[in-house]
Amino acid sequence: MLIDSTHRVWIAVTMVALGLGLVVYIPYALVAVQGPRGGSAMGIVYGSMGSALMLFAGLLGARKKFPVWRVGRATSWMRGHLWLGLLSFPFILFHSGFSLGAAPLTRTLMVLFIFVIVSGIVGAMLQHFLPRVITTRVPMETVYEQIDHVCAQLATEATDAVTELLSALEGDLEHANPQQRAEAASAGTMGGVTFASAIGVDEPFAATLHSFFDDEIKPYLVQHSGRGRVLADKERASAMFQQFRILCPEDSWPRLKDLENICEEKRELDRQRVLHRLLHGWLLVHIPASYALLLLGAVHAVIALRY
Amino acid sequence: MCVVDIGQRVYAASCVRQVEPGMVVKTSTADVAGVRRTLLELLMADHPTPCQRQQLTHDCELEHLASQAGLTASRYPGLPTPRGHDDSSASIAVDHDSCILCERCIRGCSEIRHNFVLARRGKGYQAGIAFDENLPMGKSTCVSCGECMVSCPTGALVNKKKEIATDLPGTAVPIEELQLLEMFQNVSGTFLSLNSDAVHKRHFKAGEIICREGDYGSTAFYILAGTCEVFLSSPMAHVSTKADQGGFFKRLKSSLTGQAHTREARSERAFIPIDAPVDLPYDNPIAELVAGDLFGEMTCMSFYPRSATVRAKTDCTMLEMLRNVLDILQRNKSFRERVELNYRKRALENHLRSIPLFASLTPEFIDYLRERVELRRYAAGQVLCHEGEHSDSFFLVRLGFVKVSQSHPGGDLVLGYIGRSGFLGEIGLLGAGMYTATCTALDHVEAVRIAADDFRVMMEQFPAVKQDLQVVAQQRLAENRARLTTIRTAPIDSFLAQGLMEAQSLLVLDLQRCTRCDQCVRACADAHDGVSRLIREGLRLDKYLIATSCRQCKDPLCMVGCPVGSIRRKNSLEMVIEDWCIGCGMCASNCPYGNINMHPFQVQVEDLSRPGRKIAKVQSKATACNLCLDYDEPSCVYACPHDAAHRVNPSQFFAYLARQSDTTLKKGE
Question: Shortest CA distance to A225 belongs to which of A284, A276, A267?
Fold first, then answer.
């Protein structure tokens, strides 16, 4: 969600309504004998308007439950939620006379309301900025629910790549690709050194790569979040792969590059996971708090009007 | 024997002589008969009697003609020196002595199979046929397709008794029995001996299922005796847009009253096209097939899934045949005439009525057309009409798919595909005077040709049909112009790089606005019985994501091969999968972008083996975005709370992107 020039109309409507509310409030606050109070006629009017705005803001959840219903574009509902929800705050302040209230219920209500408004503003800001961050920093973004599945696929791909690489390195052409086989066959005539023997001589290196895969790559790919792992750090990972490139025959570099790319994709997916949680995590507090606010608001209205 | 008297100094060969105005052709005078007899005698003089074919299958055409003419022996001496035998091929025996130099084998090899192995060799008595540069057949580039052997009228090229083994159910029919059947009477016995296992006789008891819709097969059926029912057992309207246009209250009212879509409301089609001589009425998709009907042609010729279920209504006997047999039958003039007669009698009216534009034709006019239309067959790649040629025909597609393309600098532009019940040629006949596009058969195509004169009579007698056709012609011309404009104005690199050239409508998500809340996916699922037709993943262009959702391609490859024509356009850009989809998955596998999904769901269907009882069955239906055609706006776009989802016209969208990019560059400078 971008809060940009397309929001102009909503901003204008909000400002005009706020202005009107303020214009009425100032004389009301000045002439009220006991000061502006929620129980006064004007206070009840402000309270009703604020509650109506809160209720409208709360209806966004219901609107989302029935996305196909032709009851106004969801974009309009969202903008209404944002700006009219924000407008409800000054109206409730006009209602309470800028007081938190004396009774525990009203005090709780006000605190809750401030919490809902602040969490909403934070959420709006996150949703304004984070999509751009995700777009630029996670080029290989996938559907959030698919991340685990994609990671499992990456692990399989990495296993295959390492198996092939090790097979070739160990002189076992069983798992080598056709090109490697062809090279092995033709290399046999070049100075009596075959492809297999040419790269299979460095057994300690093969063992190192094997253990690197078992100890670092595989756990990193399988682990839900790669935090704390060497490969989670792009620069360190890059340095490690560079070391392997130095030790490894040039023929094997493309496979090493594949492995490096797989780790890079995992890093991006981890980043997406974090950003996605941030993007939507605030709703975990905003929505329950909003429902509680509406419920307590209704209780407050009944109690206040009855007693 | 093609010799005829045209009143000139010498007799003419009717097979090559062009008809001229005022020409009088006598085909059966005593003199002509005498000349034919002499020619036969001369041919028989060189021909060893009985030849190998006559010995094996008793159908040497030359010897048959000779016996008809009462010739037992020739007065003339035979070949002074034999031309020899060639047994080098594993499958075909060549007897050069039996060859009468008719060149059928050469034409079969070059013109039908395009192998170009056979040609003429030598002069005088040593003239004959040669493989490549006169090599033994077994050492030539011959692929042993058998076309020469099938074409040969004598025993010059015969089968070496290697039957092609098949696993068809039923019992193989002996050649003698096949040759007694009218449909096989002019088919080469050599061919039948080679393919004796490719035609099986099958008996079905009343109620028995002969084939099921959606199954893949490779055979066609010819009904020898009995009656069958052909029907669609797939339930209809299962994967459709739920809501009517009309807003919340109408929706609520519909839900409360249990109002459902009527089938009529879902489609303007009165008939569902299937792979049989009859179409199925949309309201009651069941029809009858009788003795003499051939069904399953598309499955057999092009390996499409079966388009309908066929059940024996009475005890039935039928021939089940493989493609090579059907192919040879379709080249057989008498069989073609028989099928065509059957089509004229039974299917033409249905076929015309299945096209809404022609629904108003009177029975009298259809009777008039019945005698005048021509049923034409086209092999894959064959052209029905060439762009720029004088327009002399109107075509109704009866079977198969036709590609419509226009030639432009840089290559051909595919304008669309026309399947069964589609028509073409109206633009030229209604004014242009020439074909505006080239129409090419994509697979085995059968089309009904209505000549220009008959078409004009139809236009004069039925102004409403003319008006409707003019509207269609205008629409098609406008669409073609729009496509051409798209190609000329769009930034071609981006289009080509991402395969978006073919798109007409893209679901684009602005990733800087999108909060990945998946409301678009939810809305799509809500609008389509819980089955989403979009995946929020796909190609990325700048800050935009081209979601995996039907692009309404200009070149809708998905349409090619649908055995029941359920995936189609509705005179506009949106692709629609009609509710009679049989779930064969052809469209999903044809879509190069993975935008069509097969959705399995459980339904109660009639137990075909125990009529009257129902069983649970997992049925699939193809689903693709139809742009929520029941609504003003696609649900995914309408339900996006962040104004991130948009359905865009690719040409305008890419032009806008290009302009933006130019502006940014200029600012940077």
Answer: A267
